[in-house]
Amino acid sequence: MGRFGGVAAGHPATVDAGASVLAAGGNAADAAVAAVFASCVGETIMTGLGGGGFATYVDAATGTVTCLDFFTSVPGLDGGTVAPMTAIDVSFGGVPMRFAIGAPSIGVPGVVAGAAEIHRRWGRTPWPDLLSPAVALAERGVPLPDEHASTLPSVAPALATGEGRAAYAPNGELLRGGQILYHPGLADALDRLAQAGSEDFYTGLLADTLVETVRAAGGRLGPTDLASYRVLSVPVRRTMFAGRVVYGRDDLNRTLATLAALPELSRLDEGDRAVAMADALSGPDPGGPGDTTNISVIDRHGNACVVTTTLGIGSAVWLADYGVHLNSMLGEGELLRGPLTPGHRMGSMMCPLVVLDRSGVVMAAGSAGASRIRTALLHVLVNHLVAGNSLQDSLSRPRFHVAGPLVHTEPGVSTDSMTALVKAGYDLNEWATDRHYFGGASAVSPTEAAGDPRRAGAGRVVPG
Predict the structure, then answer these.
(1) Of residues 403 and 386, which shows the higher confidence score?
(2) In DSSP terms, which residues pair with 319 in a beta bridge?
(3) What digits encode the pLDDT tens for the residues 115-157?
(4) Taking the complete model, does pTM exceed 0.70, yes or no?
(5) 337 and 347 in contact (C-beta within 8 Å)?
(6) Handedness of CA 211, 216, 221, 225 (dihedral sign)
(7) Looking at residue 419, which CATH number applies to its domain?
């Protein structure tokens, strides 16, 4: 039997873009980059060219694991005053939450630089070829999945205002599932990046447009902020889990430390396992929708690339004529840890990770969901590596999320688990709907690829 590659992501169109590159002979880095740009067309409720993210890469030939940080930086290196942010309430799971948007909420974007750095380090397919699937998608638009459409009313105050109305409410009403999401001008932006290179976003025409747009709207981002932006190679952390080694970065959720704190789960029954997981996950929950997306890729050579990106809630500021929505990271309260010093990189809860054994990559996975990223990844790892479920079943099985003494449960969490949690002193909040809250993971193994049904995820295995 030949070796396989696979792509998993938060939208079928994103998966198609990455899979097409793998099928044409590209490697994991190439497929991930193509998928990232496709996600910036079809998953704009979650991510976009104006956002930031992280990547974890495994080089099969050397066994080297690398973690890249291309998240947003704090602007202000050029000085200048800044207007107040605009506070908005977003109802998520029936609970109103406060965010801040507008030009002052915009951090220095890193998605374009991050994709370029992945390609520079490990890619081999010509750069323009990796953007061509996204350009084609942007020219015709992409069907909006039902799962994305159900989230749109909650985030409409940030997305479907100003220039965003043309994309999300083109006829005066918010898009419904199956309707075409089309961003006027986005194909031009992507085509420009394909021809002029990623540098255009930081020192070229797109950079000039970005600065003019943000400054005119009262933001602080300036030309020095963009020109000095660099992708960072950050320390790789590791921990043992279920007899394998998990690699990832330090994140605000302390995902790897949570894995390390778990007992040997295979020796516990279902109820005791649920309590052990809840104890490891316990802590304050800052909440928030977690509008983020993830892409996981393994190629037939055993290389793996996991990329997680986000716009935050979105700033409601768009690049005129280019269909690019800019992030709202400075308005995301859960990320504000300490002073906002110009040039400093912001923290995040995103944690793209890989799992290895002596034979190579066993699994590559990441998730969306803000404070629920760690929760979703833990459930997926336990379901697949401890319980032995398939990847798709591991992503689909019901989850629970811990917020202090309160455990939020999806429909279908077993009676044994809930009984044990109550006996251990936890209070339960049993959710009936809105599974978007519980994260959106995607994962690949050498033989499987699966996306999270909570967010219209998909996966595809590509023969070698």
Answers:
(1) 386
(2) 324
(3) 999 999 999 999 999 999 999 999 999 999 999 999 899 889 9
(4) yes
(5) yes
(6) positive
(7) 3.60.20.40
The pair of structure tokens assigned to 120 is 């520079």
**Structural domain count, the chain:** 1
Please give the span between the terminal C-alpha atoms of the chain, in angstroms, as a whole number: 10
Q: Distance between CA 369 and CA 347 in Å, rounded?
A: 15
Q: What is the pLDDT of residue 338?
A: 72
The whole-angstrom separation of Cα 202 and Cα 77 is 14
**pLDDT tens digits, one per residue of 240-257:** 999 999 999 999 999 999
pLDDT bin (cut points 50, 70, 90) of residue 2 is very low
**Token digits of residue 435:** 């599974």
Range of the domain at 357: 4-463
What pLDDT, on the 0 to 100 scale, is given for residue 436? Answer: 79
User: Smallest Cα–Cα separation from 37: which of 164, 170, 169, 128?
Assistant: 128
Distance CA 363, CA 296 (A): 9
Mean pLDDT of the chain: 93
Residues near 379 by Cβ (< 8 Å), separated by ≥ 6?
277, 394, 397, 399
